[in-house]
Write a structure and sequence with these properties.
alpha/beta, binds magnesium ion, nine-stranded mixed beta sheet, 2 domains, VC0802-like, binds adenosine-5'-triphosphate, six-stranded mixed beta sheet, elongated, single chain
Amino acid sequence: MNKVILLKYGEIILKGLNRPIFEDALIKNLKQSAFGEKVKIWKAQATIYVEALDDTVDMDNLAVRLSKVFGIVSATVAYTVPKELDKICELAATLIKNEKGNTFKVETKRADKNFPIKSPVVSMEVGGAILDANPNLTVDVHNPDILVMVEIRDFAAYIYMSKIQGVGGMPVGTNGKATLLLSGGIDSPVAGYMVAKRGVTIDAVHFYSYPYTSERAKEKVLELAQILADYCGRINVHIVPFTEIQLAINEKCPQEQMTVIMRRIMMYIANAVAKKNGSLGLITGESIGQVASQTIQALGVTDDASELPVFRPVIGMDKDEIITIARKIGTFETSILPYEDCCTVFTPKHPNTKPVLEKIKKSESLLDLQPMMERSLEGVETVVVKRR
Ligand code: ATP
Ligand code: MG
């Protein structure tokens, strides 16, 4: 039996004259995600079709993979049948035998308005055929165990009984690029996911302080980047050596100001990396009041160090809410692995929760920052992480 994956997209439909640009970007990303599979991908009538070119393709598995591409709201493995009522009835009556449940309902969508039989009539006929062939089943139009969908489209009719929910959003590549400050924590991967979901291409920077942070901590960050790349495609992860700077802050700056100074320097360096890679903004996983460096005053002092706009998509979220998303996207289990982060290694006991910009700038001037930042930037190692 001929199977095809039908992919539906959401917001792109509203794009008017620009719609083809978004559709083409989406198809490009889907092709990247399906790389290595023998399939043909094309669009027609606000639907993207994925057709297997031989039977080595595991269509169910592929549908799950494609449902994770930003822009897709649903993925369905459907059976193709010629647009003839008796053939549609016959196939539906056979397919339903594989489903679990006692009640069903048939819904028909007629995208091909030239098809002579109206949708309610098709549904009724198909329902009748199902009942004839499956006397154990009954119809329940309100709360059916099995929803039988029939779509009559230009080339053929399609039947399916389940749908995979897609991730939604906009195709990556349609909304510029931003650089994510990726720690090994729970929040920053979620922040990156949320911005990428709006069509933004992501690069990442990670600051590490070897030997205070271990090789394993770095691997954990790359694993997080890998999970994100499964949604948004390739991510270049720029790993920045940060030990010298942290030791200098530790030595020269007042204890209670250390964290916010460190965050400002992260911003300087992230800006330099971002400009080099063509990013138009930075992304962090900060949330108001979560820790001392995320009071509204500290965020202001941090922002002052960034020329590029800083996007903080989890700014108004409670930790619980962020965790819910982390679990859903699959980063949570990796994020909670107990490897140290460079922030936690050098955390002061009593950080200043209401830093004043002028004072912080004065302390910062005690550091001979420029040459240290240059050394850091020279030491950047870039790891390319691709969609699996
Ligand atoms: P996360 O927010 O990822 O859970 P966290 O809760 O430890 O980490 P902070 O240490 O306060 O948060 O850091 C706030 C934000 O700063 C992070 O969300 C992340 O964007 C950025 N950040 C922190 N540490 C690093 C690092 N080592 N490398 C890159 N970015 C970092
Ligand atoms: Mg955090």
